[in-house]
Amino acid sequence: MKPTVIHLVGLTLGLFIGILTSKFELTSRMYIEIWRLQTVHDRNNRPRGTEGLPLGLIVPETDLYQRRLWGDPSEDLPDAPSRYLVTFTVGIKQKELVNKAVSKFPANWTILLFHYDGVIDQWDDLEWSKTAIHISASKQPKWWYVKRFLHPNVVAPYDYVFVWDEDLDLENFDAEKYIELVRKYGLEISQPALGPSDREPQWRMTKRREDVEMHNSTQEREGRCTSPILPPCAGFVEIMAPVFSRKAWRCVWHMIQNDLVHGWGLDLNLHRCAQPGYEKIGVVDSQWITHMRVPSLGEQGEIRNGAYAWEEVQSRCLLEFQIFNGRVHDALRSETASLPHV
């Protein structure tokens, strides 16, 4: 009997040890696999070139908040830093118009001026200009600047980014009420409606309607729209005064072509960055502006072959429009060709 009892005890003990060993091996393999997956995840989410840095030291984003040269860095910013970035591309000839425009925005919003004429010092007599950010490059238009200085990781702290021209009259515009309406209607890309002027807007979509707060569709001239839910009948704003959410701007920035500086053609493709465009893109009617159509940037062109400077700029715009449309067509065709055939 004794050998039988001993055998049973040994068998039970062996079985128990085997189970423990198996569980330990299984748990070990599980933890090793989790560690491996986490390592792969960390490696894939590292910015390129940071492999030698510990993950906790990597700071992939920045901002345009101005800081002090002294004191505790944690005390540099107010408790509620600006969540809105307003940019104008300007020349000194439109100083008065820009000054009036900036006065329509709250003092704690971030103002950034891109100077295409190289003149900065002559803005110093304006109080707000002393705390604004100034970037200057001679004869460069708006979309050249934003591609180079408004990377999504730079403007990440801002809920909304205004990318505006200089020749806008904002007498009937309230920035805070505008943002309220943008949030109310869930707009990712928007613009204020264009009020009455001596010329009709190029696109009916941007013309102000007096009976609504916001609209996101229109009846365009015959032949302009391939679909009632596509630009320019819906999902459309112009490039003179667009406002982008943080999410939309991350997409739009990547669509801006590095060598195409005038932005022609972007407006007809913005819907790709806020889908569905016929819901997420709209024109705010109750906060409206007037486009003064001052051709000052055209004066920065070069006189060639007897043509006026502005004519050369216009020719470049048209050429860029053709190039951009060609790239859109080729990219979509390539994307379609890469899809699996069923």
How far is the first residue's CA from the last residue's CA? 72 Å
Strand content: 5-15%
Helix content: 25-40%
Mean pLDDT: 89
Task: Specify the number of helices.
Answer: 7
> What name goes with the CATH superfamily of the domain at 79-297?
Spore Coat Polysaccharide Biosynthesis Protein SpsA, Chain A
Largest sheet: 9 strands, mixed
Provide the CATH architecture of the domain at 79-297. Answer: Alpha-Beta Complex
Extract low-pLDDT stretches: none
CATH class of the domain at 79-297: Alpha Beta
Run of helices and strands: HEHEEHEEHEEEHHEH
Broad shape: globular
According to CATH, the fold-level topology of the domain at 79-297 is: Spore Coat Polysaccharide Biosynthesis Protein SpsA, Chain A
Structural class: alpha/beta
Count of β-strands: 9
Gyration radius, rounded: 28 Å
Task: List the keywords.
single chain; 342 residues; alpha/beta; Spore Coat Polysaccharide Biosynthesis Protein SpsA, Chain A; nine-stranded mixed sheet; 7 helices; 33% helix; globular; transmembrane helix; membrane
Question: Can you give me a brief rundown of this structure?
Answer:
This protein has a domain at 79-297: Spore Coat Polysaccharide Biosynthesis Protein SpsA, Chain A, CATH 3.90.550. The chain is built from 7 helices and 9 strands. It has helices at residues 2-45, 95-102, 142-149, 175-184, 246-255, 277-280, 309-337, and strands spanning 84-90, 110-115, 133-136, 160-164, 168-169, 189-194, 214-215, 243-245, 281-291.
